[in-house]
Amino acid sequence: MRIAVIGAGLAGLHCAHQLTKLDYDVTVFEKSRGCGGRMAVKRLDWGELDLGAQYFTARSPEFRAELAKWLKLGIVRQWRFTPYQVTNQGLVPSPDTDTNAEDHSTARYVGSPCMNSPVKYLASTVNLQLNTCVTNLEYTNNRWRLTGDNNLALGSYDWVIVATPGEQASALLNQQTHISYLIAKQVHTPCWALGVATTGKVAPSIQGVFGDNTVSWLSRLSSKPERCIKHNFDDIWMLHFSPETSTALTADTVLPQGQQWLDKVFNNQLTIHHHYQHFWRYANLVNDTSLPPLIDDSRRVVVIGDWTQGGRIEGAFLSAQRVINYMFA
Question: Signal peptide position in this chain (predicted)?
Fold first, then answer.
């Protein structure tokens, strides 16, 4: 059986990894030059930036079991810190609680040495074609025919697993399956991500900050395990702007808005020396409820992704694992 997986984020790669172990003929297609999806990392001469997910948690037994494997492999480490919160009185500690944890604090994890380390590990176990954008799916003679840019024939497959954001999945399926009608017209809201290298002293305890209506989250990337600082900078930070602000910003206003926000939060203590910005068109969820399994047995097509399971990295894993369990129960 030939299976095509479209999208090399965690959901697509975990699904492909499991199917490959079962000796299925699996090919993963990824339009970008690297894998990762929301766990993507941007490597620059002045630093490495976690552009998407800043950390992840593990609550379900299934994902906790997978996390244990990743920890044993050394591709994940726990990021230990107490979050802060932006308030009218400035930055204040904002301890969170997890009644399932021994110390009642939320355990946060990051890829090691880079955020995309878990997906790079999975990618090494599958047949992955990078820089290959699937532009068209056609169901004919009980098989799916895939076409890429410039009408490049990518082969025909018995099953197709679409592991992309909902809006892209819907457009790709183009009403050739009932799944198309189960996907909302708008699944995601956007997010501008801004990474900056700075000088200026900030208390070491400030590593992650819940923001406000302008910036929803601030990470001190240089405080994550196994991260290093290049050159003579003090820190590297990642700002994720809120959906409302991201919608209003333009490419020219991202850096000034970020500088203004950092000046306010840190009382003008930071000087920005380098920056990099990325626009996530499909970032946060409009509705974070879980969807029923998006599987069409008659046409042998599946849609997976974190957005089908309430978002987050754990949601990506669970969406893929749910399909594996369904197909081989």
Answer: none
